[in-house]
Amino acid sequence: MSDQEAPLRNGVEHKIFEVLPFVDDDYGGVIVEMKTPMDTKTFVAALRDSFEQWRLQGKKGVWLNLPLSHVNLVEPAVKEGFRYHHAEPTYLMLVYWIPEAESTIPLNASHRVRVGAVVLNHNKEEKYGSLCGSGIWKIPTGVVDEGEEIFAAAIREVKEETGVRRSIYLNVNQSTINIYNLTFSYIYLQIDTEFLEILAFCQTHESFFAKSDLFFVCLLRPTSFDIQKQDLEIEAAQWMRFEDSASQPITHKNDLFKDIHHICSMKMEKSYSGFSKKPITTFFDDKLGYLYLNKQEDMEQPIS
Amino acid sequence: MSDQEAPLRNGVEHKIFEVLPFVDDDYGGVIVEMKTPMDTKTFVAALRDSFEQWRLQGKKGVWLNLPLSHVNLVEPAVKEGFRYHHAEPTYLMLVYWIPEAESTIPLNASHRVRVGAVVLNHNKEEKYGSLCGSGIWKIPTGVVDEGEEIFAAAIREVKEETGVRRSIYLNVNQSTINIYNLTFSYIYLQIDTEFLEILAFCQTHESFFAKSDLFFVCLLRPTSFDIQKQDLEIEAAQWMRFEDSASQPITHKNDLFKDIHHICSMKMEKSYSGFSKKPITTFFDDKLGYLYLNKQEDMEQPIS
Asked: Are A289 and B204 inside 8 Å of each other by CB?
């Protein structure tokens, strides 16, 4: 092509394209990842050259990942037509859609995911986590991290919350537990648990700016508890009789608490099936994941 | 206090605090929302004055919401110590944690939520959505929007996907359907459905940069279909015999497809319970939401 063969045209040196560092994505677009510092003027020139090439190549979406250290490039990028897509503490992701056709850029993450963990031992006692406000016991709850399995988050939260000194109360006389009248000692004790089922889950909205919230109620059983008890020669009083936990005023005041306790009651009678986990490979891309479904193992036994 | 009574001290006019527009949040912090344009110099001065006041008032987290039009303030904000928190196309949210104590700033949304919709009619036929690749039929799937109920997203996706001309195939002779050998007509037809249950759900990771993915498999039944059929005097061939859909090669190749079909088989025999929806008020803030739990209505009937 004559244009490309002529470095000089009209007496001006033909432009050598200076493109930004990028990789192709799987959807006909490119991802620009800025690694080395760049002044805004060089950036804008390289960006415009890059766009010339990307348009010729029929590229669609252009993702621009700007680490916090490249904050000087945010304003010029927006002025060149980029829009924000998402951000994490250390970077801002911007995006530009080249084609005339409607954008197929995927939406940003929309939900925060949390777990609440009910730990029931074989004595039909329920492990309660931290004391919340005055005299109200709550199950351990916490946020599921990016990349974390729901069941793993439940196990972690139980371990973390029971590992906090102030949330552990010990009943040294081994009598029936009434947490409100106990004189308790503090000790650092972590409970290991095994995930059994997701009993139910709850979706709410605007929990966090415009973001929605999914709260998974998980049922676990202790695995390390007995060993720890022997070592310490004590009975841990964070085990609360199920009936006592159900009779807390907050349980009656709140729909979700009431439902969780009702489900737990049914579960103890083997008349409720939640969703168990099963490792699988997924639809589209053969990724590993976990499917949560009703395995109905308990239901196979006669309902007592 | 003498300092405040003396506007002039050492011959210099005492500084009048120029704070940025802010509102208190519910957690001891403030939210700054920039509405009018501001040059960077004025912004930095006002920000520093604001911080003096916020520190005196014992404020904790400072949220700074910068609309796209205020992109000029991103770099100065970061240089003053702000970090990115999250971003949407039209704004960037930054955050600054004032206290010495560990930050309790909530994590950003971590999950994208999607639905897949299985629509079964009373003839044990399954509605399949769009043709994906060559000869493979998939159930309608789509992303749940911020603020959208999971069950509503499933209903919407069925309506949207069946409303697309190319995804509707009609069997005019009303015989047993084999979608691969049909000569079909196109017609615009939207299917209204009613949500029955979430049959199962799947969690995967890194589906979208570092974000995780939750995919809910929903069971629905048609509500408007029969009426539409009468109006049009035709049998819609997007109804696929359940056995035919189960025998597609992709169903055998993929764990998740296999499991969904197995669950649907059990469901048709009334030997499977998914999670139904129930409106509730939530734990902490009496927000309205939906709890998905095993209502076991079908299980109350004898298993056929």
From this structure: yes
